Amino acid sequence: MLCAGVGMLVSFGAVLLALFVAAALLRAAVAVANRVAGSNLTETVVGWEWDSADDEDEVRVAVGVPPIPEPGVARGMVIVFLAAAANAVALYALGVVVFEGFDAYDDWTAQALVYALAALVGFAALVGLLAAMLPTTVRRAALAALFAYLLLLALAALVAGLVAVVLG
């Protein structure tokens, strides 16, 4: 019984670590998307009068506010978890339809099609979650999701390359 409890604790820790790394990748993707999208420029002085000699009438407003607010660690982990859950549900549903309905267990093109469609559903879910949980537009959320997917692919290629070199 103790061994099962330790196993659950280790697997829970692995899931939390994976969510933490994915949230960091999401935060990096949002930062890159903010660099590409530019900044929301606002007026620097509000309420300034031409004939006023003192500076007390000036009200400063933030300049260069990022168009996509960067998520904190907890919010990023929630966004990544919900997007992964939507992706898993889509992958399961598409797998059942394609593999059970069309009896295409050995067809690699059907498997690639299922994974590609599930990735599109996951992308749409990530865009929707980013637009809903971060106050931004859908276009900017799609840009951040695109960079998140690109960073995830780069990380997966790096890990695959390291595994290939080690197992060599």
Summarize it.
The protein is mainly α and 168 residues long. Helix content is 72%, strand content 2%. It has a two-stranded antiparallel ribbon with strand order 1-2.
Radius of gyration: 23 Å
Helix fraction, binned, reads over 70%
Report the strand count: 2
Largest sheet: 2 strands, antiparallel
Oligomer: single chain
Mean pLDDT: 84
Structural class: mainly alpha
Strand fraction equals: under 5%
Categorize the overall geometry.
globular
Provide the low-confidence segments as ranges.
none
How would you describe this protein?
- The chain has four helices and two strands; from the N terminus they run H-E-E-H-H-H.
- Helix 1 (2-37) crosses helix 2 and helix 3 crosses helix 4.
- Helices cover 72% and strands 2% of the residues.
- The chain has one domain (2-39, 69-167).
- The model has no long low-confidence stretch (mean pLDDT 84).
- By secondary structure, the protein is an all-alpha fold.
- A two-stranded antiparallel sheet has the order 1-2.
- The protein is globular, with a radius of gyration of 23 Å.
